[in-house]
Amino acid sequence: MSTAPTTVTDLLDRLTATGGRPALTWYGDDGERIELSGAVLGNWVAKTVNLLVEEFDAGPGTAVVVDLPVGWRQTVWSLAAARCGATVTLEEPGGPEAPDERDTADVVVTSRPETWSGTTAELVAVALPALARRFDGDLPADAIDAAAAVMTYGDAIGLDPVAGRAPSLTVLPVVPAGDAGTSAGAPGGGRTLVRGDRDVATVLGETLDVWTRGGSVVLTSAATARELAADPARLERLAATEQITRP
What we know:
single chain
């Protein structure tokens, strides 16, 4: 049995090596379903790392706020910022940002750029719908539209800001696998349902925990998690369809 990864780099290498096997299956609102294989997830993270490095010189010492709700995009941006070696803060969408973040953040990745008016940080506006080609809203001056920009970057990390020293998983503000984590995970490469109706750090922590144990994640939005909890028959059908081994 291979050793569980303890760095972001090792975790991404492990996911990418799984090729076409599903790493993350996302159930969003209104029936949205997105499936990302390990290889595709790795490509998304690499593209996002390249954007952060080339546009903002992101690296160790850079403060990145990820202000996105639970979802596959939040997962990708959090991993990419951590892969850069940046200090990552997960903002809870719907609540006000911490007072000092407006002035101390270097980069803010957000689906609600209007709430960050007056910040000294660089802004990246993220459209949440899976097929979005651009940010559907008012884009502040000098903000980057992630939907349009990310796809222009390469699938492999170019200029590596942490070459020679892989950033630890503890770069992320979550409990890594092996510690007193929030999820028991699914052993032996099984599929684990991760409910999105908790705070973003807890959900991301469970997702990372499952991956470090060699498992695959079925992640739901907050609204979908509540609907499944209220409809056991639907939850049972989902478990059967997605071959969930740990609900």
